[in-house]
Each structure stands twice: as C-alpha cells, then as structure tokens.
Amino acid sequence: MSLQGSKYDRPEAPSPATGGNGAVAAGNKGNGTVLSSPSLRLNPSQEHKPYDYEDMQLEFSAVLLSSLEKYLPHTMLRDPRDQKAKFMQDILLKYLPPRERNRAIKHREYRQKIISNYQPRNRELYTLNPTAVFVPSFLKAINDNTEQSFRNILSEPSPGIFVFEMLQKDFCESLLEEIENFENWVTEAKFRIMRPNTMNRYGAVLEDFGFETMLDKLMEGFIRPLSRVFFAEVGGSTLDSHHGFVVEYGQDRDVDLGFHVDDSEVTLNVCLGKQFSGGELFFRGTRCENHVNTDTQSEEIFDYSHAPGQAVLHRGRHRHGARATTSGHRVNLLLWCRSSVFREMKRYQTDFPSWCDECNREKKERQRSSLATRMDIFRKVGESTT
Ligand SMILES: O=C(O)CCC(=O)C(=O)O
Ligand SMILES: [Fe+2]
C-alpha cells in the first residue's frame, strides 16, 4: 500500500575512521565509481572552517558534508568546494549497502545526463525567491513563526489535515510552463524518465531536473516550521530529506490515484492548475503499518476539492487517494518530507504509535473495558458485604 519514491534515503554519517592508520579507504577515479584509497584523517583538523554546501545539488545532506570536511586529508583542505563535495560524496556512497549504492550511482548518472542536456525555460524558478513564490499571508505567518500566526492562515477541516493559501498565481503558471518545457524535451530527446512512483504513468520528479536546492529551501524554511508545530509526533521538527514531484491528470494523462499512504512523514500537496473538474482528494484516517487496512470510521471520512495555489499538509500515513479528473487538466506539486531521526526511532518503538487512529481507539477500548471490569468487581464486593 505504501508508495516507494525513487529517491533513496540519505544515510547517517559513517563513523569517521577505522583501521590501524586511522584511514577510511575510499577514492575516486573521476568516473563516478568508488575505488580504493585516498583516505580521510582519523583526527579532524579542528581549526579548519568548513564550507557551506546548502546551495549545491547534493546526494547527501549539506550539513553532513560540512561536518565531514575537517576529516579531509590536509592536501585537500584548500581544494575548490565542488571537488571536495564530490570526494566526500563518493566516500559516503561507499558506506551504503551494495544494492543501494548501485542504485545511487545509477541515479547520479541519470540526473547528470538530464542536467547536462536539458535547457530550463524559467531559470528564476530554480532558486527560491519567497516574495515571488508565496502569497503575502503565508510569508508573514512563516516569518512570525508562532503557532498562532500559523493558525491565522490555515484551517483544519478534519483532524490532521491542514489547508491554506500558499503559492502565487504567476509562480504556478511559470512552474507549469517549466514542466511542459521539460516534458517536451523528454519527448524530443526520446529520453526515458523515471516517474514519481509506482502508481503514476505521468508526472516528473523535480529533483531530477534541477530543483533539489529549491526544494531543500522549501522544506527547511517553510514546511518544517509548520510541521514542527502540527506534526511533532511523526518527526515534524527533524524533516531532513524529500521527494518532490508533479502529478498530472486528465485526457492522455493519469485519471485518478488509488487509496494509499505516502512514503513520507509529512506530505505537502499543492494544486498548480490548470482548469479541471473532478479530482477530489479523499482522506480516510491515519494508520500505522499494522492497521493500514482496517475499516474507516465515519468521522474519518473527508473529501476535499483543490484549487490552484492552495496547499494541503497531512501526515504521510494519513490514508488518501484522488478521484478521477473528469475534464480538463489537473497538475499538483507534491513534496514528501522525511525524517531520518523519526525513522530510526520508529525501529525501536515497542508500544503503540500515538498518531495511529486505530491504535488510539484500541487503547481507549482497553481502558474502557478495564474500568468496566474494576467497576464490576467493586459492585460485587459491595453486594457481598451488605
Ligand atoms: O493527486 C493528488 O493530488 C494526490 C497525489 C498523491 O497523493 C501522491 O502522489 O502521493
Ligand atoms: Fe499520496
């Protein structure tokens, strides 16, 4: 039931060193494949001031690269930033399990092929300029950064589903143009692109054609502050990777999207346009892995009709789908936001997760029945002593 994104999760930092000489064997011959030798240092160069990698297209987190930089060999510390980033990413790749590593190397080559051949149409979209992207009310709420400022601009029509005005009309149109431009290039170049996930035959992954940095900023600066307040229990404050894509419905496109949960902790779904009818989102309660197929309660039923510029924010485990787009063309921007910290913590979770509606119902039912049993005992004891 869970959709799998094509992007692999970013790993944790490897332990910096092993072996007698304190070296982590890894290196690169310039063809993207990791071979033996050069090494990291066992003792970091404490006085070295690392670069900021935030604005680069990366396969690992920018923070991770900045932390690793002081372990680079002395001779590399003054190298250009790009060179250091490539070296460190190759080392990190080596620490992925073999299957993931092969997948990551293939994906890197795939992205490089696109980036070096595709000519963007609206280049300004690739760096996030908040005043050009967001409506003023949204921007103000994020700048104020309080729960009250968020509540002033959003509604919660059903528990755990937040709706608000987010994107400017011009930005939506410009992004639609860019997507169309990309698709035309894909067709002309006969390039075989990877679709966003197993359920879509159309649509495109935004990180694959240059939007990685822009989406980093969107998640870190705008979605994480909201998620920290509304989705803290599923790692909302530690979102650290994403899978961003567009889905397209209508004639000659996908028709609808089946009932599913996302491979995300928090999902942002924004309608970009164009004109359409149908295509309502339907939500049916949040479920953990154990309860994903359980019945829906009447209070969990919520259907929503999207309009261009509007955003819906929900937990990835909130079960949902999209009804058929019956006319026109519907295009939505999706950002599946993930937290590696939350995923790691979940592996050790022994009791029920508080965010699963079914677990909560079961817990309440257990409490109710244990209270009833105790009341029964008290009643019987009372009867026998009178
Ligand atoms: O069509 C939509 O708006 C929903 C898309 C969605 O849920 C997804 O791609 O995960
Ligand atoms: Fe979804």
From TrEMBL:
**Compositional bias annotation for Polar residues:** 35-45
Q: Write down a Pfam family by its short name.
A: OGFOD2-like
Could you tell me which residues belong to the region Disordered?
A: 1-48
Which SMART domains would you find in this protein's record? P4Hc (SM00702)
Bias (Low complexity):
23-34
The alphabetical list of record keywords is: Dioxygenase, Iron, Metal-binding, Oxidoreductase, Vitamin C
Which positions fall inside the Fe2OG dioxygenase domain?
Answer: 240-339
Q: Which cofactor does it need?
A: L-ascorbate
Please indicate which superkingdom the organism of origin belongs to: Eukaryota
| Gene Ontology MF terms | dioxygenase activity; iron ion binding; L-ascorbic acid binding; oxidoreductase activity, acting on paired donors, with incorporation or reduction of molecular oxygen
Task: Output this protein's name.
Answer: Fe2OG dioxygenase domain-containing protein
